[in-house]
Structure formats: structure tokens, C-alpha cells
């Protein structure tokens, strides 16, 4: 009888997708067969609902398989998933990265193993011993350099799913990137839950900018280095120096801004003010003309008035934001924000989110229009689509070599893409 490899499903963020690839390897090495594994997300109540919905679908599609639930939602609400009749085992975020966990699941998958294995994530002190090479497209690889978060924003459950911040030592990161470049990857993206806290738990407390400069110095053959998301208030001097002096560091930063009003930022327990965000963007653009920014912005946080929201709309212009990730506020039990009595009406939240998205769409259109007729270095993600250094999508009419960096000049834009 042929062994049936496990089926994996991933909800949520890029880091979850990275960890799913690591779990595939761990499960294969342990000899786990015939299982369905779902890596859940807990970022909002809606994300948890979708995770439960996906579990029911996976059970319908795989009626005889052993179904294992892991990820952030399993970590923060193990009892919720243990109570589902479709679920055979619940594995915490710390446990899912352990070879011992998968070895214990392998013999009969559940019978000899505790059905719920979810320990205190705050006790986890290391990360990424499971580093994998080559996750992503054939052109772009993602490297996890940090996990967890030491901050406690009032809307966020993630620290309770991921634990406190843990960093991968710089030497380990550099060695991995060297291997990736040797395999032909032309772009590496540094990822983490709270990327700018990298190094706080390491000897000598290096900063993210130190890591970036070290990578660029010690891996001279790496054509492109990209940073996934940063907290701008934590940007250090070396990171700013890299922005100014290192052309291989891509001129695109995604910022965790969340709001444009100081009172709401305070109630969110963010560590920056509106003027801090504006000052960072102005300085980055001064150091690197043409720098583009993406940003996370939440619409409808509790107590948000029309005036507060207007400051978020204005922030798009004041910070020259292009790529917006808009999140309608979703009440998340277990967070301080969920206890705030003045919650915003759901229809108002939906309308405000739509306004932000429309503003973001207009910003993208302006950016793309400005790129027409300009020569760009485009990393091909597949034969007909690539991305500029600023992360704009470019559609080609003739096939290119996947993974190659192509120099081309867009002639027009259409439906959020540049056209060559």
C-alpha cells in the first residue's frame, strides 16, 4: 500500500506559510502519513471563524484522515478547536516546530499522543532552528529572522499566539542567504512578526540595520534584499544608512502605522505619534528619492470619530503611502480593545474601510502612471509577470525566464499593473 503524504492548509500571514513549509519537512522526516494539517490564524475574530470553516471543509474533503490543528488560533484558543468533532489533535505554535512532536504523532498519529499539546508560548526562547531554504517562488525567497513580539498593542492577540520576540543569530541568517543565492534566488525577503525588534535578545543587542548591512557586505552576489514590514519608530541609524547607500536594498518599505490620529494611536498603545510617521517617511524619501511605502491601517477602532478617521485618510497623503493594507476593526476577545465600551458601528467600519481602500487604489494608480516610460529592473515571478524594485506588478506580453531580472520600460498601466 502506497504511503499517503500529509495534506497541509495555511491560513493568514507569510510567516505561517513559511512555517507550513518547515512542518512539511518535519512531518516527512518523522514518517507522518495520511494526515491533514491546518495552520490557523488568530489575527482577528474573522480569521478564527475562517479557520474553523476551513477545518469543516477539510473534514468533508478528507473524511478518513486524522486532522491536526495548529497555528496562532490553536495557541490562543486550544479549547475551541479541541471541542470541534472534526479535530483529532491540537498542536501549539511552539510544539509545531519540534521534531519530537511530529515523531510522537507518527506511529498511530493520535492514539499514543496527548490530543491537545499547547504549552505556554511565553516560555519559548528560541526560534527558527527549523530554517528552510527556498520557500517562495523560484525568484524570491523568504527568510525568517525573528518571531514573536514584546509589545502589547490593545487590538492585537498575536503576542499570545507567537510569544515574546526571539531572533535568529546574524551568522545563521547570512549562511542561509548564501545558500539561497547559490541556488539561484535573485531576491531575499527578511520576515518576522516584529522585524525591527530583531537583535534585542541577542548578545550585544544588534539592530535590524546591523543585520541588513552585514548581509549586503557578506553576500555580495545577492542582487536584491527586501524588508517585509517594519515599525518605523524602531528604525535604527544603520537601517537608514542602508536606505541611503545600498542600491541592493529595495526602495520599498511596508510600515506598521495602524492609524493617523494621535489619540487613537495612544488608545492602541502604539509607540509612535502621527508626526513620527510623517518624519520617518520624509527622511527615508530624502535619503532615497523614489522610495515607496506600504502601510497597515485599521478602520473603525473603538472610539474612532469622523475626525479621528479623517486623520487616517490624510496620513495617506502626508506619508506618501502607495500600497495600503486596510483592516476593518474586528473585535477580538482577549484583547484590551474588545473591552472598550464605545465600539464603532459595523456599517460605519465597512464604509471607512472602503474609503481607505479607494484612496489606496488612487495612490497606486498615480504611482503606476509615474512609472510609464521609465526603465525598470523587473524580477520575473513567472513567465508573464514580474515586480519592479518598488514592488509594482508588471505584465509582459511575451514570456520571460522565471527568476531572471529583466530590464524593461512599461508603456501603460491597466488594472493595477504596469504593461510591457
How would you sum up this structure, described in words?
This protein is an alpha/beta fold and 420 residues long. The protein is built from 13 helices and 19 strands. The strands form five sheets. A six-stranded mixed sheet has the order 17-14-15-16-19-18, covered by helices on one side. A five-stranded parallel sheet has the order 1-2-3-4-5, sandwiched between helices. Strands 6-9-10 form a three-stranded parallel sheet.
Secondary-structure map with pairings?
Blueprint: E1 7-10, H1 14-30, E2 35-40, H2 45-61, E3 66-71, H3 72-76, H4 78-82, E4 89-91, H5 99-105, E5 116-117, E6 140-144, E7 146-147, H6 158-162, E8 166-167, H7 170-182, E9 187-191, H8 208-218, E10 224-227, H9 237-245, E11 252-258, H10 262-268, H11 274-287, E12 292-299, H12 306-318, E13 321-328, H13 346-371, E14 376-380, E15 385-387, E16 393-395, E17 405-408, E18 412-414, E19 417-419
Parallel strand pairs: 1-2, 2-3, 3-4, 4-5, 6-9, 9-10, 11-12, 12-13, 16-19
Antiparallel strand pairs: 7-8, 14-15, 14-17, 15-16, 18-19
Helix pairs in contact: 1-5, 7-8, 8-9, 12-13
Amino acid at each position: 500500500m502506497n504511503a499517503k503524504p500529509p495534506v497541509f492548509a495555511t491560513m493568514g500571514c507569510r510567516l505561517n506559510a513559511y512555517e507550513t513549509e518547515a512542518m512539511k519537512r518535519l512531518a516527512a522526516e518523522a514518517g507522518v502519513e495520511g494526515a491533514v494539517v491546518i495552520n490557523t490564524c488568530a489575527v482577528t475574530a474573522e480569521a478564527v471563524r475562517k479557520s474553523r470553516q476551513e477545518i469543516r471543509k477539510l473534514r468533508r474533503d478528507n473524511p478518513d484522515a486524522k486532522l491536526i490543528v495548529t497555528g496562532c488560533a490553536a495557541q490562543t484558543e486550544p479549547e475551541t478547536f479541541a471541542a470541534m468533532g472534526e479535530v483529532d489533535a491540537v498542536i501549539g505554535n511552539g510544539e509545531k516546530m519540534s521534531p519530537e512532536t511530529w515523531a510522537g504523532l507518527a506511529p498511530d498519529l493520535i492514539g499514543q499522543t496527548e490530543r491537545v499539546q499547547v504549552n505556554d508560548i511565553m516560555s519559548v526562547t528560541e526560534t527558527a532552528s527549523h530554517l528552510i531554504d527556498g520557500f517562495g517562488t523560484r525568484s524570491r525567497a523568504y527568510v525568517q529572522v525573528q518571531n514573536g513580539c514584546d509589545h502589547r498593542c490593545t487590538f492585537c492577540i498575536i503576542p499570545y499566539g507567537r510569544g515574546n520576540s526571539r531572533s535568529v543569530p546574524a551568522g545563521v541568517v547570512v549562511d542561509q542567504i548564501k545558500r539561497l543565492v547559490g541556488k539561484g534566488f535573485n531576491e531575499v525577503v527578511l520576515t518576522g512578526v516584529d522585524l525591527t525588534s530583531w537583535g534585542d535578545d541577542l548578545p550585544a543587542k544588534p539592530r535590524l540595520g546591523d543585520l541588513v548591512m552585514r548581509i549586503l557586505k557578506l553576500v555580495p552576489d545577492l542582487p536584491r534584499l527586501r524588508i517585509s514590514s517594519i515599525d518605523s519608530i524602531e528604525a535604527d541609524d544603520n537601517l537608514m544608512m542602508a536606505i541611503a547607500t545600498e542600491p541592493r536594498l529595495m526602495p520599498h518599505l511596508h510600515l506598521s502605522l495602524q492609524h493617523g490620529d494621535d489619540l487613537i494611536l495612544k488608545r492602541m498603545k502604539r509607540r509612535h505619534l502621527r508626526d513620527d510617521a510623517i518624519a520617518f517617511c520624509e527622511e527615508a524619501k530624502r535619503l532615497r528619492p523614489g522610495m515607496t511605502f506600504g502601510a497597515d491601517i485599521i478602520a473603525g477602532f473603538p472610539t474612532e470619530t469622523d475626525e479621528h478617521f479623517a486623520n487616517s485618510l490624510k496620513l495617506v497623503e502626508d506619508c506618501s503611502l502607495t500600497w495600503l493594507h486596510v483592516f476593518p476593526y474586528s473585535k477580538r476577545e482577549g484583547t484590551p480593545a474588545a473591552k472598550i465600551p464605545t465600539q464603532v458601528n459595523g456599517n460605519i467600519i465597512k464604509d471607512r474601510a472602503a474609503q481607505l481602500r479607494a484612496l489606496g487604489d488612487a495612490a497606486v494608480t498615480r504611482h503606476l502612471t509615474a512609472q510609464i516610460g521609465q526603465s525598470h529592473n523587473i524580477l520575473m515571478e513567472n513567465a508573464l509577470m514580474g515586480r519592479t524594485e518598488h514592488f509594482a506588478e508588471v505584465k509582459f506580453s511575451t514570456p520571460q525566464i522565471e527568476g531572471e531580472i529583466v530590464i524593461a520600460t512599461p508603456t501603460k498601466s491597466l488594472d493595477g499593473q504596469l504593461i510591457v
